[in-house]
Amino acid sequence: MLIKLPRYNDILPSEITPREIASSRRVFLQGLATAPLLASVWSASAFANEPASRLRLMAQRSAKYSVADKASSFTDTTTYNNFYEFGTDKGDPALYAGSLKPRPWTIKIDGEVKKPLTLDIDALLKLAPLEERLYRLRCVEGWSMVIPWVGFPLSELIKRVEPTGNAKYVEFTTLADRAQMPGIRSRVLDWPYTEGLRMDEATHPLTLVTVGMYGQILPNQNGAPVRIIVPWKYGFKSAKSIVRIRFTEAQPKTSWHVAAPDEYGFYSNVNPEVDHPRWSQATERRIGEDGFFTKKRKTLMFNGYPEVASLYSGMDLRKFY
Amino acid sequence: MTLHAARLIHLKRAVFVVALLPLITYLWLAIHQALGANPIEALTRASGDWTLYFLCLTLAMTPLRRITKQNWLQALRRMLGLFAFFYACLHLITFIWFDHFFDTVEIWRDVWKRPFITVGFTAFLLLIPLAVTSTHAMQRRLGRHWSRLHRLVYAVALLALLHFWWMRSGKQNFGEPLLLTVITLILLTARVASATQRWIQVRTSLADSRGAESR
């Protein structure tokens, strides 16, 4: 029997929002005309792990920054996660991230900047127009997904804080709260989780301050309420649940590099030619698509984002892995 | 205590079925697409885990028999050992099939290049002679060399554990490898202790008989 599953792209909001709620949302919206944030909607969800009430985000799909690949399913992308603050098993974040409180949330932007900022999450959402971008996500472990993120370029935020001449790097810090994150009790990594980018990587138009996925605010397990997405680097470079963005002169200490310097470098660009010491990075398995009877697909240089190559011209990418 | 031959056969059959349950469960889950977002990884991990569990169970039989004096436990040792080999084969198949899709050049390159895989593969190779010589006929033919050969199982267990530690070193999630290592070390110590005890017994009895001769 052939069961046609609706693809993410096929669903129109009108098809999934009950009429009476859609109209009440319209009323609600009239009082929210300036906010890019839409409304709390009851979505008749087919996914068990999806909370009944979700905040939908209004965002235009950016054709320029979206890949042609098929989007992964919401179920796969929200149940197969690496988010060690909630446990090291990939099922743990979906199970335990319910204790994370993504609102109220403030994010501090400081360091080598002329105008440091402390922003409430809802103010951050209004900082720049939100757009939807379908990006590939390649995990260092050898699997990949394709996710429609919602956010705006990090460069928009960087412009507002006016980095000084000393700002060479950007450091992202994830929340590390024992009360909200059961995984913090383990010593898997030095908490808080920190990641970083070089300034030119941070200002690259692909680097996205991400507040949503699949047209909704980020589920907790995916890094609510705000994370960074750097699609040409291995997934762990894209820090989740960010509480601080700091501009520095020295290269930030990044968590995985500190934990295993010979396995994870600062750059960690997706590169099929540079193996992880314990496995090859030449191929990957696309979650939800590549099954038992298919060969793994070839991993693309910079995860198929060749436009970033110029950032690394003249660099030995074997040395700076 | 001894167990009736007929009852032992029933017991063996029951253990056989129970030992197949992990395989059946995972096949059922795979068919019903209930293995999560990455079913292939789930199968690879499960087959590796069960290889280690059966290795530990196999190693536990002799010390358990000595402690409990339940001699029929010995009769289960071979079957459990063969199940360890069986799950190791499945684990290797997931590697050959799912990881490399039968690309032999790539497989060999991986085995040579990555110590983590080299160690796991060596453990598998060492299991082969043990499986081959597991029959009664081979046991008789090899005589006392048989038990010497089968001490290789300790090397297999240690290599398999190293493989497991290495695999987990990325996540630094050493709970399970640690538990299995502790169990294996306890079992190893039990064997060394009883071997030493027997050696002392042999020596004292030798000394006694010499003493008797000289008198």
Summary tags:
heterodimer; A: 321 residues; alpha+beta; Sulfite Oxidase, Chain A, domain 2; 8-stranded mixed β-sheet; 5-stranded mixed β-sheet; disordered N terminus; B: 215 residues; mainly alpha; 9 helices; 0% strand
Describe the structure.
The complex is a heterodimer of chains A (321) and B (215). With 321 residues, chain A is of the alpha+beta class. Chain A has a single domain, classed as Alpha-Beta Complex (Sulfite Oxidase, Chain A, domain 2), CATH 3.90.420. Chain A contains eight helices and 15 strands. The N terminus of chain A is likely disordered. With 215 residues, chain B is an all-alpha fold. Chain B has one domain. Chain B has nine helices and no strands. The chains are: A alpha+beta (321), B mainly alpha (215). The interface between A and B is medium-sized, with 30 and 23 residues.
Q: Give unreliable regions of chain B as ranges.
A: none
Largest sheet report of chain B? none
Average pLDDT confidence of chain B is 89
Which class of secondary structure composition applies to the elements of chain A?
Answer: alpha+beta
Number of domains of chain A: 1
**Low-confidence runs of chain A:** 1-53
Count of β-strands of chain B: 0
CATH architecture descriptor of chain A: Alpha-Beta Complex
CATH class of chain A: Alpha Beta
Report helical residue fraction of chain A: 10-25%
**How many domains is the backbone of chain B divided into?**
1
Q: Which overall shape of chain B is indicated by the principal axes computed on the Cα atoms?
A: globular
Question: Radius of gyration of chain B, Cα only, in angstroms?
Answer: 20 Å
Q: How far is the N terminus from the C terminus of chain A? A: 47 Å
Specify which chain pair forms the largest interface. Answer: A-B, 30 and 23 residues
Task: List the total number of helices of chain B.
Answer: 9
Strand content range of chain B? under 5%
What is the number of helices of chain A? 8
Kindly state the number of beta strands of chain A. 15
